[in-house]
Structures are given as C-alpha cells and as structure tokens.
Design a protein that fits this description.
single chain; 186 residues; mainly beta; Jelly Rolls; 5-stranded antiparallel β-sheet; 1 helix; 12 strands; globular; binds calcium ion
C-alpha cells in the first residue's frame, strides 16, 4: 500500500511540475525590434522617432545598438514610440533598460535638468485619452530597468509605448534606451 501511495505521489508531483513549467512560460514581447538591432543607420525599424533621436552603436544593454536620446536647453522633448491596437480593460506591463553616461564629450554626458522615462499613452483614434509614466531617471546612471503598467481605459483602441526625454531650462546630457518589452498581463 505504501508503494502505491508513493507512485501516486510521484505522478502528482510530476503533474504539478508540468503545470508550473507551463504557467511560468515567458510571455511574448509585443514590441517589434525591441532592442533597436534592426534599422537603417539612425532609423530603427518599426519605431516612430521624433526630435532627432537616433539608433546608435555606442552604448548598449544588449546586441550592438540602442536608442540615443538627449536633453537640450529649453522645453523640448524627444523620443520614440510603437503603437499596439488594444481594447478597454487590457492590461500591459512595459519595461526597458536606460542609462546615462558619466563621461564628457559628444554622446557621453550625464543627464542634467531633464528627465528620461517610459510612458504608456492611451488613444481613441487620433485623440489622446490619458497616459501613465514610469519613474524618471535624472543624472548619470548605469543600465537600470524601469517599469510601468496600466490598463486601457474606456474608449481606448490604441496603446502607444513611448520612451522619452523631457528638457527644462539649462538641460543637457545623453540617454540610451535598450531591450524594451511589452507584455499583456492577465
Ligand atoms: Ca540593443
């Protein structure tokens, strides 16, 4: 009887193992070209870029390329985005790596008087409904993972995943974004 019981326990344990392995399977990254590896010179495939941000092979978290963003004196902002069709009630987790070098010279300066962050913007057609942002990086930092999560509000049909630097008076410095990921949460 003890032997049969042990076999039943072993089968149950195996079933639990299979179940837990399938339930922790990594969720698919909904972003295309999340590490900026694909592109033509400064233009990253699948990303909308504004304000002059560029794909650059200088500092990177993974692969050979990252997105170079920067702050400038004034009230500018610049960054890149990718859109995903959505429906109200859909929850997303948006993560990514960010760094600002603590050196001097072109492309290598720490962020001063500016902020760098991830943002999810909700749209109905072309109308922006609302947005939510991650914590901000200010000043120099080694590669650091930021995260923001949010649920599509009533009326939303598009989610825009944005990496962005905002500037203020006296702002300067360089920011790199890499290895971004969007997953749909249950
Ligand atoms: Ca990369």
């Amino acid at each position: 009887m003890g032997k049969v019981y042990a076999v039943v326990l072993a089968v149950a344990a195996a079933a639990i193992l299979v179940f837990s392995q399938s339930s922790v399977k990594a969720a698919d990254n909904l972003l295309v070209n999340p590490g900026f590896e694909s592109g033509t010179e400064v233009n990253a495939d699948n990303w909308g870029q504004w304000g002059g941000v560029e794909r650059l092979n200088e500092f990177k978290h993974g692969g050979d390329w990252a997105l170079h963003d920067w702050a400038s004196d004034g009230t500018d902002n610049r960054g890149a985005f990718q859109d995903i069709n959505t429906a109200p009630g859909t929850k997303y987790v948006f993560t990514g790596y960010i760094m600002s070098p603590n050196e001097s010279g072109m492309h290598k300066s720490p962020l001063v008087a500016g902020e760098a962050f991830l943002e999810i913007e909700w749209f109905q057609g072309d109308a922006k409904l609302s947005s939510i942002k991650s914590d901000s990086v200010k000043g120099a930092t080694d590669w650091k993972q930021l995260s923001v999560s949010g649920t599509a509000p009533d009326g939303a049909d598009k989610a825009r995943f944005v990496v962005k630097v905002t500037s203020a008076a006296g702002a300067s410095g360089d920011i790199y974004f890499d290895d971004l990921e969007v997953t749909q949460a249950k």
